[in-house]
From TrEMBL:
<feature type="domain" description="Nucleoside phosphorylase">
    <location>
        <begin position="5"/>
        <end position="247"/>
    </location>
</feature>
<dbReference type="Pfam" id="PF01048">
    <property type="entry name" value="PNP_UDP_1"/>
</dbReference>
<comment type="subunit">
    <text>Homohexamer. Dimer of a homotrimer.</text>
</comment>
<dbReference type="InterPro" id="IPR035994">
    <property type="entry name" value="Nucleoside_phosphorylase_sf"/>
</dbReference>
<keyword id="KW-0808">Transferase</keyword>
<dbReference type="GO" id="GO:0017061">
    <property type="term" value="F:S-methyl-5-thioadenosine phosphorylase activity"/>
</dbReference>
<feature type="binding site">
    <location>
        <begin position="87"/>
        <end position="88"/>
    </location>
    <ligand>
        <name>phosphate</name>
    </ligand>
</feature>
<dbReference type="InterPro" id="IPR018099">
    <property type="entry name" value="Purine_phosphorylase-2_CS"/>
</dbReference>
<comment type="pathway">
    <text>Amino-acid biosynthesis; L-methionine biosynthesis via salvage pathway; S-methyl-5-thio-alpha-D-ribose 1-phosphate from S-methyl-5'-thioadenosine (phosphorylase route): step 1/1.</text>
</comment>
<comment type="similarity">
    <text>Belongs to the PNP/MTAP phosphorylase family. MTAP subfamily.</text>
</comment>
<dbReference type="InterPro" id="IPR010044">
    <property type="entry name" value="MTAP"/>
</dbReference>
<keyword id="KW-0328">Glycosyltransferase</keyword>
<feature type="binding site">
    <location>
        <position position="12"/>
    </location>
    <ligand>
        <name>phosphate</name>
    </ligand>
</feature>
<protein>
    <recommendedName>
        <fullName>S-methyl-5'-thioadenosine phosphorylase</fullName>
        <ecNumber>2.4.2.28</ecNumber>
    </recommendedName>
</protein>
<feature type="binding site">
    <location>
        <position position="188"/>
    </location>
    <ligand>
        <name>substrate</name>
    </ligand>
</feature>
<feature type="binding site">
    <location>
        <position position="189"/>
    </location>
    <ligand>
        <name>phosphate</name>
    </ligand>
</feature>
<comment type="function">
    <text>Catalyzes the reversible phosphorylation of S-methyl-5'-thioadenosine (MTA) to adenine and 5-methylthioribose-1-phosphate. Involved in the breakdown of MTA, a major by-product of polyamine biosynthesis. Responsible for the first step in the methionine salvage pathway after MTA has been generated from S-adenosylmethionine. Has broad substrate specificity with 6-aminopurine nucleosides as preferred substrates.</text>
</comment>
Length: 290
């Protein structure tokens, strides 16, 4: 199977990468089922990458229906070591305006219905998640954004991403509550992905594209899908430029990442005595430690 060290997961409004060349569509099967869609392998300025449309290319999957484990496992099967997520988010802060870019460094979990671990069935592991985003990968992403000097786009370095269950958007009371917690942006997808990427020892960072002010701002209309997609479309070219520049920088100078050894001290179970079937299912994650 073709391989790629860099993976890209495109969210709402970002269903393909226009600059990809030598494109190959790969249908990957994993022990956790099928990913959201075929993975698109191709080159960006000569660097091999794997692209996946998180909700499917025709946007058919709700946030709660996303096969997060299959998506991350498929990336691992392709050899991905760095994973960039591009996501639409609502802003919870006045200064993060629609069309701005935020590179969060923390999460708050408000999901209710997500499976966000590969472990269980006889093998127990607890990854460290205090620093939920790979700081070095986020650094490359932020340097890439800054280097492009995008007109009318401010970069916000760091911030907390609230991950809610959805699919309905927040109530005003919730939106004000998250603001009182000091959170920066809100979305429905990135937290399970970040946890699973960490378990799979893949460095993960998010390019959060602000599309709206959620529903707290008295001078702006409450978020609607129409608003999200319209603003995302206005920003899609910028988002792809950022991803392209980030891929270029990663290919020139791949950073070290604590994520790449996240399981070193995380596994509690004696793997010699662990159930064979579970070991087989998780072989790709465990092989270094067997
Ligand atoms: C289309 S509005 C809500 C939808 O958009 C975001 O998706 P993604 O993170 O995949 O860009 C948000 O998380 C919701 O899933
Ligand atoms: N306000 C919002 N809440 C949740 N997810 C979003 N995605 C884009 N805007 C959002």
């Amino acid at each position: 199977m073709a391989q790629a060290k860099i993976g890209i997961i495109g969210g709402s409004g970002l269903y393909k990468m226009d600059a990809l060349k030598d494109v190959e569509e790969v249908h990957v099967d994993t022990p956790f089922g099928s990913p959201s869609d075929a993975l698109i392998l191709g080159t960006l300025d000569g660097t091999q990458v794997a692209f996946l449309a998180r909700h499917g290319r025709n946007h058919t999957l709700l946030p709660s229906e996303l096969p997060f484990r299959a998506n991350i496992y498929a990336m691992k099967q392709l050899g991905v070591e760095y994973l960039i997520s591009a996501s639409a988010v609502g802003s919870l802060k006045e200064e993060a305006k629609p069309l701005d870019m935020v590179v969060p460094d923390q999460f708050i979990d408000r999901t209710k219905n997500r499976v966000s671990t590969f472990f269980g069935e006889g093998i127990v592991a607890h990854i460290a998640f205090g620093d939920s985003i790979c700081a070095n990968l986020a650094g490359v992403l932020m340097d890439a954004i800054a280097s492009l000097n995008l007109p009318d786009v401010s970069l916000h370095r760091g911030g907390t991403y609230v991950c809610m269950e959805g699919p309905a958007f927040s109530t005003k009371a919730e939106s004000h509550l998250y603001r009182s917690w000091g959170a920066t942006v809100i979305g429905m997808t990135n937290l399970p992905e970040a946890k699973l990427a960490r378990e799979a020892e893949i460095a993960y960072a998010t390019l959060a594209l602000v599309t709206d002010y959620d529903c707290w701002h008295s001078d702006h209309d409450s978020v609607t899908v129409e608003m999200v997609i319209a603003n995302l479309q206005r920003n899609a070219v910028n988002a792809q430029k950022v991803i392209q520049e980030t891929v270029h920088r990663l290919s020139q100078n791949p950073p070290s990442s604590d994520a790449h050894s996240a399981l070193k001290y995380a596994i509690l179970t004696n793997l010699e005595k662990a159930p064979a079937l579970t070991k087989q299912k998780l072989e790709l994650l465990l092989q270094k430690y067997l």
